[in-house]
Amino acid sequence: MNFSDLALAEPLSRAIAEKGYDTPTPIQQAAIPPALAGNDVLGLAQTGTGKTAAFALPILNRLAANPKHRLKLTTRVLVLAPTRELAAQIAASFTAYGRYLKLSVACVFGGVPIGRQERALFPGVDVLVATPGRLLDLVMKGACDLGHVEMLVLDECDQMLDLGFVHDLKRITGLLPKQRQSMLFSATLPPSIEEMAQRYLKSPVKVAVQPASTTVERVVQSVIHVSQTEKLALLANLLVTEDVVSTIVFTRTKHGADRVVRQLSAHKIVAEAIHGNRSQAQRTRALSGFRTGEVKVLVATDIAARGLDIPAVSHIFNYELPNVPEQYVHRIGRTARAGREGRAIALCAPDERPFLKDIERNIRMQLDVQALPPNFRDLVGLTAKLIKASPSAAEPPREERDSGRGRGGARPGRDPRAVVHADGRGPRREGARDGGGGRDGGRDAARDGARREGGFGRPEGARPQGARPQGRPGGGFGGQRSGQRRSPAGR
Length: 491
Ligand code: AMP
Hints:
- The protein has three domains: 3-208, 3-Layer(aba) Sandwich (Rossmann fold), CATH 3.40.50.300; 219-394, Rossmann fold (3-Layer(aba) Sandwich); 420-491, no CATH class.
- Helix content is 40%, strand content 14%.
- It has 20 helices and 16 strands.
- Adenosine monophosphate (AMP) binds at residues 21, 23-25, 28, 47-53, 309.
């Protein structure tokens, strides 16, 4: 099948050809025809499979075939996504595919002032991509009317449930017209998602691709057993000795991500952190530096990294193993994209061995065990000296560390150490320029991420105490119930 078989409107075919797409990906081949026919779609696919175009193209085709005057405050298409970065990425795809159609695409998410978003929605838009928290804020302010939505997409649904958006989704869908086309995409299909599909979709056509396993197969994976305190020395060494073009280093906590960035700076390695406590401006800047290649090392928590489409990642370092085994598959899926080779190295401390077991059961293979470098003891000594000698690598005072708890937006003068430059310039005072700590920014960042992400020391994305668990049993590759989270011993 090629794109001409799909009989898309000419402006869409032209935009796709200019993007260099020849053949529809498997999820596009499966999802586009039923979606064009007006059916609801339940898609099992993750980012990297081309699923954005799988829903964006039929939606744009329908908009092109049936142009309408925009009505004030309304949107014809609503796409909900779990993270700000993913929302921005989806909106950019709609804009690119729809560039020869006269459409207006808006994107709203928390962590940035709300005023500009209100103004963008005022004349009405064709496509609105949103994170649920900010969208509800806009609705409650009277800045957005969802009563004219013709097409709904719920993207990365399993992650939306993991992040505790279930009630927000119920409220939002309750405001939509009953008569609409709906599509739901998820990387896994636990019972909670099946239940959602039953609630929100009408006789959906179910389409599925198995990217996780193919990605897993293409990534060369290994594990190195190392104590927690010696991980930094090992990481710094691997970043130099491995053929790293660009890499994402995953930690479980926001505080852990900041610490890795600081300590790498003592080795003159430029790294940027991306996690829920950073302001939207900081996250955007970190990501664009990483995309352009200015920054080669991105240190991320799971919540910020899911769904990002960054083609050039050569290595994934699991600096801390995820306590949800499926998350490992999502993490290493950031490499080996678009047919490239990828390398994933896990740094496993003794108390993380149960996590490793769960991961190996989940991917149904054992990771190759890689030996520590021969001169490792010397490297550990060197790292300790470098960190001691580097003031920017030191732990910030406790009250400063904890100040970002649950706030989301950066406050002037806070969290300044998250960006450290290799040239010894020391920390940049991020907050002072961001202005992300305003009322809307702070509150909304909390809604769209930080509030759910908990404070330092808690794995990012873990549910706040007392929250109702949204278990994800049965998904992935079998084995342990995937919704189960384990606590590492002694943490
Ligand atoms: P997605 O899963 O939507 O994030 O897409 C992953 C990547 O695949 C993006 O960089 C898209 O631009 C690209 N892509 C999507 N569809 C196609 C296609 N049919 N041919 C080539 N590349 C594609």
